[in-house]
Amino acid sequence: MDQQRLIFDDVLDALGEVVRALGGPKVVGPAMRPSELPIDQAAQWVRDCLNANRRERFDPAQVAWLLRKGREANCHAAMHFIADEAGYTRPAPLDPKDELAELQRRFIDAAGSVQAIGERIERLTKSPLQSVK
Prior knowledge:
The protein has 133 residues and is mainly α. The chain is built from seven helices and no strands.
């Protein structure tokens, strides 16, 4: 297994480490732009996006995709670089089980809120004569 680098010159360098961990531009390019470009052109697009001297850039959604896929590949280079540069404590990836439990808790809370709102709407839309019965 290859050792991941710990120090990066800039965010593009850190994103490049994520791309390397994911299998390189020939894997990442087609995954990011599956129907837009042939494999070799998609790979070149990734290389261009990682080159500060080129015009091509990843958009924010594509950076987020790289961060997510990097986490799945246990490569946190870009996330750590961004946190370090912005003066934040490095985040720890969520365990998928913990993430699922948190999403389930939020879903139950939201469902309770929706039910309470529905009951409040029902009370407010009843006519005063109906509530006297």
